[in-house]
Design goal:
Helix content is about 35%, strand content about 20%. The chain contains 13 helices and 18 strands. The chain starts with about 20 loop residues before the first strand and ends in a 6-residue tail after the last strand.
Length: about 425
């Protein structure tokens, strides 16, 4: 309970570039609006960090005195919204309480933003520094990704303890709640149904959405039928069945696939294909790539119990990919998520790999992009505020030099990133 104590700090949010003009017009480019619509040769007008108008250039007037940004030949899309990420006590492959510092959390949020991930929902274990960063972004658009927090993950054995712990987390005023209903492939205890039902009851009474970490179809189905609203991982043991799909549809619930979470459990048995990818170096230090390529580290990993588990998760990934397609085709909202933040799950970069896996699973590039923008925001109650290019939404925007509808890897072609209408400086490398 001591870790639930919340101490708020203060942050003077500054930008490395001069403050943007009050009115900016992005003129001439293609707009992917985050809901599935495309506008060619569009104009987007941003006023005081909020989108004021969007439409074909022929029908939207550029206000007098506005700063013009020429986007001809480029694509404008909403910033990526990660509906399941983390701020963690991590530095590269190392983890420990000493890494949970304000400076490190800010570094992680800048890493997300560097790759065009402009919002992240941190699904636990969030402490005071994360709450402080969440609070401060309300005053002005931050020079890093926006963050929303779950607070401590709720995991207890009894209904009584679940109610007490849930009430304690609710008192911190989080944006959402998180539970774990999983036994880590039989290596740990699973939160019993009587306990998670007590937490769900408290969450509903408080008006908070509950995210549930699951692995097995039986648990996911029970949670969906109980009215849980956010399934925080893929079902990875069996093909999803109609009972699960029907329960998800009835409650307009959300499903977050987090495919790269599975990849992270086995990929370090050898040198990852991306270890020397210049795009990885955009937001992460070269020493991390060198460590991932170290044969000694790889041998040590392959001799550990974690490697054996990773082989099971590797098989689970194929089940997860097939289930993603079934869930999407059944009309269920898919909320883009990666579970980045823990050691070896690299914030910002893994989000682009996740998009690629979603397309490999059978989604179109447009379907993956909508999941990663408008749907991800809506699943956490931010529809109309984040994730879309529409009047009234925050001007969190990506300018891409290439069209991601032609090839999903074109999300890497980041020409400019804006948060609240202000352009972020490129990373110093």
């Amino acid at each position: 309970m001591a870790r639930i104590a919340l101490v708020l700090g203060a942050l003077l949010v500054t930008f490395c570039t001069p403050a943007a003009a009050q009115v900016t017009a992005f003129v001439g480019g293609r707009v992917i609006d985050g809901t599935g619509k495309v506008i060619e040769a569009a104009t987007v007008v941003v006023r005081d960090g909020t989108i004021a108008e969007v439409g074909p250039a022929a029908s939207v007037r550029v206000p007098e005195g506005a700063t013009r940004v020429d986007t001809r030949g480029k694509t404008l899309m909403p910033g990526i919204v990660n509906a399941h990420g983390h701020l963690s006590a991590v530095d590269g492959f190392r983890t420990g309480a000493q890494y949970y510092t304000r400076a490190n959390l800010e570094r992680q949020l800048r890493a997300y933003a560097t790759y065009g991930v402009t919002t992240v929902f941190s699904l636990g274990d969030d402490q005071a520094d994360a709450f402080a960063l969440r609070a401060e972004q309300a005053a002005a658009p931050p020079a890093r990704a926006r963050v929303f927090v779950a607070g401590p993950i709720i995991f207890t054995d009894t209904a009584e303890a679940a109610r007490a712990d849930t009430d304690a987390v609710i008192a911190l005023k989080p944006d959402l709640l998180k539970i774990r209903v999983d036994d880590n492939l039989g290596t740990s205890k699973k939160m019993p149904e009587v306990a998670w039902r007590a937490t769900l009851e408290r969450a509903k009474a408080a008006g908070l959405t509950l995210a549930a970490h699951i692995f097995y179809l039986a648990d996911a189905r029970a949670l969906a039928e109980a009215g849980n609203t956010f399934i925080a991982h893929s079902v990875r043991d069996l093909p999803v069945d109609e009972a699960f799909l029907a329960a998800m549809r009835r409650g307009n619930q959300c499903y977050s696939p987090t495919l790269m979470r599975e990849v992270s459990t086995y990929v370090y048995e050898s040198t990852p294909s991306w270890a020397n990818d210049p795009f990885f170096r955009r937001g992460h230090d070269a020493t991390i790539a060198a460590e991932a390529a170290d044969p000694g580290r790889q041998a040590k990993f392959k001799a550990s119990p974690a490697w054996a588990q990773g082989q099971k998760y590797k098989a689970g990934l194929e089940v997860a990919k097939a289930n993603l397609k079934r869930v999407h085709d059944a009309g269920i909202r898919v909320a883009f998520g990666t579970d980045t933040g823990p050691a070896g799950r690299f914030q910002g970069f893994f989000e682009h790999l996740e998009l690629e896996l979603m397309v490999q699973s059978g989604l179109t590039p447009m379907q993956a992009l909508v999941s990663a923008t408008g749907t991800a925001a809506a699943c956490w109650g931010k529809q109309g505020v984040l994730g879309t290019i529409a009047p009234g939404a925050q001007a969190d925007l990506l300018v891409l030099a290439k069209n991601p509808l032609d090839d999903i890897t074109n999300t890497r072609a980041l020409d400019a990133i804006y948060i609240g209408g202000r352009r972020l400086d490129p990373p110093a490398r």
